Amino acid sequence: MKSFSLKSFIKTFLIASLCAVLGWGAYYRISKAEFFLPQEVITDHGKISITKVKIGDKLLGQNGEYNTVENFENLQPEGNFYCVNGILLLYENQSIIANGQVIHVSEIKVGDVLTTVDSHQSSSIIGHQVVETIDVVQGEYYFYRLTISGDHTYYLNDILVHNASRYWVGGGSSTNWNATGDTNWSGTSGDKLNKASVPTSSDDVIFDQDYTAFGQGGTCNLSAETLCGGFNMTGASNLTFSGTGNFKPFGDITVPSSGITWTQNGYINIYGTSNVNIGMALPDITGLIINNGATVTLTGNLNIGTIPLYVYQGILNTNGYQLDCGIFGDSGYTNTRGITFGTSTINCTSFSWTGTSGTATFTVNTEYHLNVSGGEFRLPVTNSWSSDAGHISVAIGGGSIKYFEGRNATFHDVTLNMGSGSNTGELRIGDGASYHPTFNHLTLSSTGSSKSNSLILYTTSITVTESLAFSGVDGAARMLVWSYPVGTAHTITYNGASAPTAQYVDFWDITAAGTYDSGLGRKWDFRSSTSVGELPGNSEIYCTTADDLYWKKDTTGSWSSANWDTVEGSGAGDGRVPLPQDSAYFTNNTFTNNNSYTVTQDLPRIGSFDWSGMTRTGKTFAMSTAASLYGTTYKLAAASTISGTSAYIFAGRNTQMITSNGKMIGDRQVAVDSIGGTVRIADNLSIGNSATNRNSLTVTNGTFDATNNGVGNYSVTLSALMSANDTGTIIMGSGIWEFNGAPNFFNIVGKSQAKLSAASSNIVINNSRGIGQTFDGRSLSFNNITYQGSVGSSIFLTIVSSNTFNTFTISDAPKTVKFTDGTTTTLNGTPVWNGSAGNIITLTGTGTGGWNLVKLSGKVTCNYCNVSYSNASGGADFNAYTTNGNVDGGSNTGWNFNNIPAANEVLKATGTVKMQGNISF
Fold first, then answer.
1. Which residues pair with 643 in a beta bridge?
2. Peptide bond preceding 683: is omega within 30 degrees of 0, i.e. cis?
3. Residue 695's closest CA among 748, 727, 741?
4. Beta strands in 379-478 (DSSP E)
5. Residue 29, Cα to own-chain centre: how many angstroms?
6. Coil, helix or strand for 137?
7. Among 453, 365, 368, 437, which residue's Cα sits nearest to residue 405?
8. How far apart are CA 18 and CA 15, in angstroms?
9. How high is the pLDDT of residue 613?
10. CA nearest 743: which of 798, 821, 805, 794?
11. pTM above the 0.85 mark?
């Protein structure tokens, strides 16, 4: 192979001149000068320019017969062109007959023998021509790709070429697709002797045999990335298509429904405009990709199971056929891409188009069914969703959070279904406040037995124009429809002619709007509907009328079961499962004896409950499910047993009262998340006794008031007091707040002074569990704090922030208290820091940076304390006399460690001494 030669130049010039005189119409431009080469084929009516060939024409082939043109393509590919002997310009991947074999033009060499027809004699006379020159030509030239019947050959400028078809015949050096010396390919069907080169992107590949007797031909292994033009397996049987290489076809794809075992474990990456008919399932491939701007049209059903189908660049036309796949989307690509749905049924696990730019076009203007089993429906940021008359079903289960991101599109008939079996589903409609999807018909439903399925308007509102339905399963498995973020109501605008329907659903922070109006005082009226729950923050919605319900007489069972009476003590079991607006009662008429009965609270959303009228023994209130409480009254019974570790979240946005009647309410977390609401206690409150943060109090939104609005000041016993942000308020009162051993027992995150009122409360840190503890008061002021419990000096309390205390007592020495370096602890009263011989109290910093201790007046006196890295100031006397067992641990300022003067020591004075009054010795 060489560069453009003088001999080739002269020959080409002469031929080009002849072409101009004869008026031959097809030509190529070679190099930078204008040269014209004829591109002629021999038909049954004589020679014509290849540009004039039509499907159905008859072209002379090597077998002396005129074979039919079955397809004709005019391509302008990237890559090199080759000028052979100055008379033939061919694309590098065109096939030619050289030395009796089918090879690509890029493979020919000087000295190879080409097959020719003597056009000056009979067209059936075969001749030969030796390759003398090969010139590489780069530029924008055309490749006319023909598909020919018969032996797939034709003559171009009297030189025999092949139509770029490859037949798998096996017998190569290995079973690999790309095996060389020998290959597994032939230029004609079944001819193992007619060895052909390995296919390229320009070659149509055909598997058309029963490969039982073909030796190695029974397995085609993709050992590396594999390219071809079209791919046709019609007629193939007893063939295994295997390997881990990626497969990249550029043309039509046809795979029958049987006869082939397809175990390839790589991608099928479609790179050309193709008709695709894959009749069999492809369970082992990694994924199917449409790429390179291709338009891919299904001509049969396509089932790749749960394997993903990605449209990176191009259009998929489902053409009315059924498509089954896993993830169906663009994998975040931002090229021009899209789908034409037609009347197809598409079953996928996720419809996930997440590209943030580049236009995605979805043509959905006819009847179609899109069933998304994995719950994810996402349109890309830039998209065109055309007029829609189809049906979309999105189902979610398995406990994960999924999204229906419809942007600003309009959808026809959509069903969103949360949960399946016992799995919990959470589906979020929306992708930002700037988007507002519209539905003609919208059904929001829940299936299965989960009690926690929810659908969220996620920072967005929606519009429904024709029909709207909400449907849970039963009184136990109610669906929750709510808005995010909590406390911000989003709007469902309903403009239908008929009333919306609802059953077994709870609404929370939902605003009803639109042209439909019940005419009964609010837009939607569900007062007579079955089990429609009323949670806070709704507008223009009537829910099922609240009721009083009584536990079924002398019954053990679950809260969510049919264990409720409408009449106290009737035993009829005719009451519904309590809604969040209902009140549940347990009395001596529901438990008529002292036998053992257990009530298991297993719903995630409940209203008020009252056990205070039950005085009989043997009753257990078991809390098995974390629950949000929306009622006003929560009373325990002194005679009952409380069990369970599930959290209670007070979320009523009203005034909610806890009366414990001396009962510890369980080893659980209690949270206040009540926007604008207040949780009060009517007596002392005890939350568990284990050394975990589970039995803690967290105030996220609203107020926790231990004073019952100033009526009483009650004590609180718990593991930890925590708060998540600056929207919660804690009123501590003057009771005792005892913390019984959690590591981060006092952590007031983000609090300001106005958000926590320590008043005259007494904080007791009771650590007898051997757990290091942290007090983070966020630079607030507190009354009295006591650190007690037998833990030893190796376990320490860390004061994290700068705080102010009245008195600070450390008892049950030995003890260690560490003050965070750089912080300041201010004392208004007198601390009590008294160890004893052998039981030292250690006061130190968290490092060597030093900590500050401030008291404005009076004295700080320590006994048996080891003080280090302390900077004492403010005007008070800081005395840690060594005679009282104290130790100067070093790096202290402002402390007096000197001995107290002895009673008989002579005082010496220098300078002037003034005395007033009488002095006696």
1. 622
2. no
3. 741
4. 383-385, 391-396, 401-405, 410-418, 426-429, 438-446, 454-458, 462-471
5. 55
6. strand
7. 437
8. 5
9. 95
10. 798
11. no
